[in-house]
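Good morning C.,

I know you're traveling, so I'll keep this short. The sequence:
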Amino acid sequence: MKGAFIMKSAVRYYSRSGNTRLVAEAIAKGAGTQAVSVDAADAEVREPVDVLFIGGALYAYGIDTNLKEYIRSLKKENVAKAVVFSTSWVSRHALDLIREELKKQGIGVSEETLYFRGKPNEKQQAEAEKFAKKFL
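The tokens, ready to paste straight into the viewer:
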């Protein structure tokens, strides 16, 4: 298709229990990319992306140090916009904490977020896949 613009996206997450990883993988499927844990060797966003989907959960009333340090390493010129997602048994507070860290880096953050309580079922994973497509 001549003149078509293809948006580039990336999915990064941190998950201890695997719940956030399931959401990240569903989002990546919808975005046509791979979900990469922030503590993986290839987690750095080296090329500019239009959308960075980034997620984690609440651990002892904060986000994990790995995720916080990863966000602080992001270069704002490589991320046009971030979209935040989270899973938690406790609350949605991780969404706000991730958003705050991104804003400190000068990265624009979508007001729209995705949250699931606990382990996402198949229907929720399909919802996460559909959620990603809205931003591309």
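Safe travels,
E.
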